[in-house]
Amino acid sequence: MKIIIINGPNLNLLGMRENDIYGDETFTDFLEKLQQKFPKVNLSCYQSNIEGELIDKLHEAGKYFDGIILNAAAYTHTSVGIADAVRAIKTPVVEVHISNTFSREDFRHKSFTAPYSKGIIVGFGLQSYELALQSFL
Question: Which residues bind substrate (predicted)?
Answer without folding.
Answer: 71, 77, 84, 98-99, 108
